[in-house]
Amino acid sequence: MPRNSINRILDQLDELKSRFGLREDRSVEQILSRIVGQKANDAETLIQLHEILLFLSAYPQNARVKQLSESLLKSFEKRVVVAREAGVDLSALDHPDVSGVIGRAVIDTFTYPVVRWLVNREQRDVVLDWDWFEDENRLAESWPRFMPLLEEDAFVEANVPYKSWLRAASAGSNSDLVWLVQRFESLAKSSGRSEKEIAELFNAQKLYVRWTPSYRASRTGMRLPVRRVFYHQGPLIQRRDISLKDELEKPPTPLIRLSSQEGKAILDMAREASTARYRELYGFTNGDPARVFKSNIGRGVDIFIIGLPPKRRLPLRAYHAAMIFKNGVPIGYFEGISLFERMESGFNLYYTFRDGETAWLYARTLNIFRHLLGVTAFSLDPYQIGYENEEGIESGAFWFYRKLGFRPTNPAVMKLVLNEERRIAAKPGYRTSARTLRKLAQGSMIFELAKPSPKVSGPGDWDRFQVRNIGLAVQRRLAARYRGDVESFRAAAVEELARVLGLSTKDWREVKFTVLSDFSVALSLVGDLSRWNEVEKEALVKIVRAKATADESHYLKLMQKHARLRRAMIKLGSQ
Question: Is the pTM of this model over 0.90?
Answer without folding.
Answer: yes
